[in-house]
User: Fold this.
Amino acid sequence: MQMKARTTGLAAMAIILAVMPLTFPNGYYYDIADTALFNAVVCVGLNLLIGYTGQISLGHAGFFALGAYASAILTLRWHVPPLVALLAGAAMVGSLAFVIARPILRLKGHYLAMATLGIGIIIFIVLNTESWLTGGPDGLTTDNFTLLSWKLKGDGGWYWVGGGLLLLAVWLSLNLIDSPVGRALRAVHGSEVGAEVVGVNTTHYKVLVFVVSAVFASVVGSLFAHRIGLITPGIGSFFRSVELVTMVVLGGMASTFGAVVGAVILSVLPHVLTAFEDYEAVVLGLIMMTTMIFMPKGLVPTIARLWRRRRASA
Amino acid sequence: MSLLRVTDLSKGFGGVLAVADLSFTINPGTIHSIIGPNGAGKTTLFNLITGVYKPTSGRILFDDVDITGKPPYELAALGMSRTFQNLQIFFNMTALENVMVGAHLHLQPRLLASLLHLPSVRRRDAVCRERCVELMEFVGCGKYRDADAASMPYGALKRLEIARALASQPRLLLLDEPAAGLNATESREIDEVIKAVAAKGVTVVLVEHDMKMVMGLSDHILALDYGRKLAEGTPAEVGKNPDVISAYLGAAN
Assistant:
């Protein structure tokens, strides 16, 4: 049954992704859609850490930014092919996450939040101040993403890459959760000592999921850098990290599709709310507050439960 | 030959010794009970043996391997598992998934294979799922296999913890108050489960307050008071021991 729900979900997502562009009147819509897709992939990774394993990171925008800067620097300064730069960035971010994960994931709750917040801020400061490498506050310009002689450009191109990557990320996440490793991760969330006494090395799994989620962020950061053409330290700011966590929580923790829905809503909503002009931020805040008050488990898990209950009573 | 040998074990919290200079051995294939009044150090002793706490001094040998200070997950790999007095269920998972986590060490969990859901992973999971369903039926909570753990009644959760521990295929199983909070019927049923577990060749150590259960079930009893050994022996011997009687009922004089 779980298998079926998974296939149905993936198929539904593929269809929505395929049909969406038909409704886009111009390139502006592609800009928003691409941002939503990129955010969604980062959130699927972050949800593994936050939703399933019960840890928190307020520094994931930092990993996203490191991936973006790694790609920009490697392709511009050393003319490394973009795909190689992306992989090198991911390897670097993965290694960095691995090194810092062990000491900080000993912390729990607020303390872990503080430590990850610190890492995000350090990355942000380095990007701002090490101008010789990062261009400082002015940032860096980036080139198109090329693979051999193929050049990725135009409105549609990025959309399909982003959509494909999201489908891949969701598939990987659904696979992982329903596997021995995924059960170990969820067990860490459920009870660390309960997991330990049946042989789960909880530290190992916390480090593992931290690295995986950081690599997700880094890969998307690399693509984002090529898509956007100009990157500045702002993409790694604390506010971006909070935004990512908010997307996961709003969509529904411990729900892969929830992470996608949360990311899409929070990426699209500000553009929809421009109709409210000066009150845009207020309306956005109100929507988020009411959602969390009435649906504390997040959108997707709450709606899924209502749906099941309705079907059971029918 | 002993399966577990504890030598001069002590654990202090601040200035208080919860377990003090305790030595005893547990032979394989027996049901061993640890009794004592509240605060006698029974649960602390469990936490020391299973690696949840690190001892202040003393040594613990499991099957002649020094396991002093080793973390619980390493002990699980050596063949030791336990349940908890205050349940440590994974409430974010289904009952069956809880038991499947118990089989973690036997599934060769690899990140890449798991991410890709390779056929080998699916095959092992399918076999594991069947075995875990059997374990749930064995401990008597089979009807909850697809239920969310969070929706299960207390008595079933206690059985679920036993099933989860058994899924790790332990040689030594420690049960911390398996009958606490259960009514008389449920207690008797747990009693049968423990006997059945022991009959499979698993050495069982339990902490229990239900004296009827302890006396009926145990091959060997260790009585503690203020973290020290008060008495040790067969149920008959310990039951007659004047120190044990006075610790439980208060001294006659």
About this structure: Strands of chain A lie at 140-141, 145-147, 150-152, 230-231.
